[in-house]
Amino acid sequence: MKIGYPCINRGIGCSANRTFRLASYSDERLLSTVRGNLECLERILSFNRASGLLFFRITSDLVPFASHPVCRADWQAELRPLFARAGELARRGDDRISMHPDQFVVINSPDRGLVERSVGELSYHATVLDLMGLDDTAKIQIHVGGVYGDREGSRNQFSRAYGDLPEPVIRRLVVENDDRRFTIRDCLEIHRETGIPVVYDHFHHRCHGNTGEIRGILEEVAGTWAARDGIPMADYSSQEPGRRTGTHATALDPDDFRQFLSASTPHDMDVMLEIKDKERSALAAAVIARSDPRFIHGPPRSPKT
DNA sequence: AATGGTCAAGTCAGC
DNA sequence: GCTGACTTGACCATT
Known about the structure:
Elements: E1 3-6, H1 27-51, E2 55-58, H2 75-92, E3 96-99, H3 112-131, E4 139-143, H4 151-163, H5 167-170, E5 173-176, H6 184-194, E6 198-201, H7 202-207, H8 215-222, E7 233-236, H9 254-264, E8 270-273, H10 279-291
Parallel strand pairs: 1-2, 1-8, 2-3, 3-4, 4-5, 5-6, 6-7, 7-8
Helix pairs in contact: 1-2, 2-3, 4-6, 9-10
The protein binds a DNA duplex (15 and 15 nucleotides) through helix 3.
């Protein structure tokens, strides 16, 4: 089990998702922004390694406007060595890397133009991971998409659209249950139709009113990951008290996290903590996970130097 | 230097 | 019909 956090490190003093306004786009601006973002990404990865956090989600904003028509800069060629260097850092540290495109990626949409733009965005994500030289365990996770008044039809549309995706995307794409539209059962059904691995999001599962046993579901989810896909990834968060259902907690709830770990034993997973204070909660969670030998699910890993 | 309106992109619930 | 939530506030024109 590796424990990680998404996109932003709040204590390190740099941001890997610096961007700028579309109106102020220039090739020079883009390249200098991405150089800065990659530099910060290296600092984050170094911090993570020193802290024992070996799972990290890279921000989708690493290359702003990457799939927008305004972007004409050849950032792949210009910055290839920098991507390779960041990737080398991740590989040396035995880091698990993921990405999570934002809500604008909807591959089951009835709007063909939107699907095309979504494929462009997914291809950009795959390019980043490819340039970093990461293997197929570095995943890109998305949600099923819109319901459009027809759950089953829209779920089937995801499976059809998945089959049409470019190979570099298919190698890395995984599907995750969301908090309101498609459940883990929907995702497992999509897996049966397509073979796509399924990410279990514990908090989203809870948002649908599920409070009980999760071992059976985790068993099924684990079966959707082939050896080349790596250890199953899971997202963890908890409800922020006093806010509407679905609002992520600002800080780790240690008791709830302990219960989650206990309920998931013996399934090994790499756990992404979607808590708003980021690395702080991830560090606290890692302490909890290490505190009880039952929670270190996988075979022990020798730290690489 | 501080601030507040606005920012590429979609869906849908809640008001 | 507008706003907020989603993996995440940050940019920048204006004062």
